[in-house]
Structures are given as C-alpha cells and as structure tokens.
UniProtKB/TrEMBL annotation:
InterPro entries: PFOR_II, Pyruvate:ferred/Flavod_OxRd, Transketo_C/PFOR_II. It holds the Pfam family PFOR_II. This is Pyruvate:ferredoxin oxidoreductase core domain-containing protein. Transmembrane segments: none annotated. GO terms for biological process: response to oxidative stress. Residues 54-95 form the Pyruvate:ferredoxin oxidoreductase core domain.
Length: 96
C-alpha cells in the first residue's frame, strides 16, 4: 500500500535490516547449539543428507525434509543417487 512508500517506513525497513536481521544468524546458531546440548539433536541453518555423491537433490523447508530423507534412502536402494538439502533458516538465508 501507500504507507510502504513513505520515507519513514523505508528508513525503518533499512534500520531493521541493519540492526536486527544481520544478528539473526548469530542468535540462531546459539539457540541451535543450546538445543543440541540439551537434547543431543544438532541442527544447522542448512543441513544435508547423503549429498556427497548425489546426482539429484531434493530441497525442502521444514518437516517435509524428514519424508524427503526417507524417499532419498528408498531411491538409493534402486541405484539412484539422491540427497536432501534441508533449509532450517529461510530468512535471512545463510551466507556461504
């Protein structure tokens, strides 16, 4: 809408990105590390499953990747080299 074109809104969006979004990856890493220490289940912003020799990748976000890992495992029994990339942090997308 028209409000988004106002200078104050635009300045706020830039300020939000400058002071908040750039810190999110650090907070997420800390939270994932703490969760791993408490539960033994370790997560990263982008996780992979059997991608080392994969010819095809299934890319997913969220819980669908649990099913995708089962599919990749099944397809590998048929000789197809399939892996999974699981995105745990969408925005801001992790830098390489």
């Amino acid at each position: 809408g028209g409000v988004q074109n106002q200078p104050d809104f635009q300045a706020g969006a830039v300020d939000h990105h400058t002071h908040f979004v750039r810190e999110v990856p650090r907070f997420v890493k800390e939270a994932m590390d703490e969760y791993g220490a408490l539960t033994g289940r370790h997560y990263r912003p982008v996780m992979t499953f059997r991608t080392e020799d994969a010819e095809h990748l299934i890319v997913g976000l969220g819980s669908v990747t649990d099913d995708a890992e089962a599919v990749a495992t099944h397809l590998r029994t048929q000789g197809k080299r399939v892996g999974v990339v699981s995105i745990k942090l969408l925005q801001p997308f992790p830098e390489a």
